[in-house]
């Protein structure tokens, strides 16, 4: 995860609806994991969004120990991300296997939504 400044730019479209696949508490920020406008998984500050559906699905999981070395105090999201520290790392590194799992989760949530 990166540090965000007031001047930071994000690959997002104003007023576009995004599917959130995970939420993390990082340092003092709440971040959403979603596919940006390039369809890449990225973490974005919650302040960029207006939440239109505040329901967390029954298939969401929680961990307070998944990625402490990255400054993450807590994470909520799909099972593979929350339970597998290797997946978390691989997703950040754009590992093809991790991306496949991310896109499968994204597709499943879009179809259910």
Characterization of this structure:
- The protein has a five-stranded antiparallel beta sheet.
- The chain is built from three helices and five strands; from the N terminus they run βββββααα.
- α2 (85-92) crosses α3 (96-112).
- The longest helix is centred in the last third of the chain and has 17 residues, at 96-112.
- It starts with 21 loop residues before the first strand and ends with a helix.
- It has one domain (22-112).
- The protein has helices spanning 79-83, 85-92, 96-112; strands at residues 22-26, 29-35, 41-45, 61-63, 72-77.
- The protein has 113 residues and is an alpha+beta fold.
Structural class label? alpha+beta
Give the rounded overall mean pLDDT.
87
Strand percent estimate: 15-25%
Q: List SSEs in N-to-C order.
A: EEEEEHHH
How far apart, in Å, are the first and last alpha carbons?
27 Å
Structure summary, number of beta strands: 5
Work out the helix count.
Answer: 3
Q: Round the Cα radius of gyration to an integer and report it.
A: 13 Å
Q: How many independent structural domains?
A: 1
What's the main sheet like?
5 strands, antiparallel
Uncertain segments: none
Q: What percent of the residues sit in helical stretches (DSSP H or I)?
A: 25-40%
**Strand order within the widest sheet?**
3-2-1-5-4
Rough outline: globular
């Amino acid at each position: 995860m990166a540090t965000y400044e007031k001047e930071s730019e994000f690959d997002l479209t104003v007023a576009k609806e995004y599917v959130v696949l995970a939420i993390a508490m990082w340092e003092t920020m709440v971040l959403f994991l979603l596919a940006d406008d390039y369809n890449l998984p990225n973490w974005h500050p919650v302040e960029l969004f207006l939440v239109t559906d505040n329901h967390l699905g029954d298939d969401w999981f929680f961990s307070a120990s998944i990625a402490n070395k990255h400054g993450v105090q807590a994470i909520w999201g799909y099972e593979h991300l929350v339970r597998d520290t290797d997946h978390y790392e691989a997703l950040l590194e754009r590992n093809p296997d991790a991306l496949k799992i991310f896109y499968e989760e994204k597709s499943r949530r879009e179809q259910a939504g």
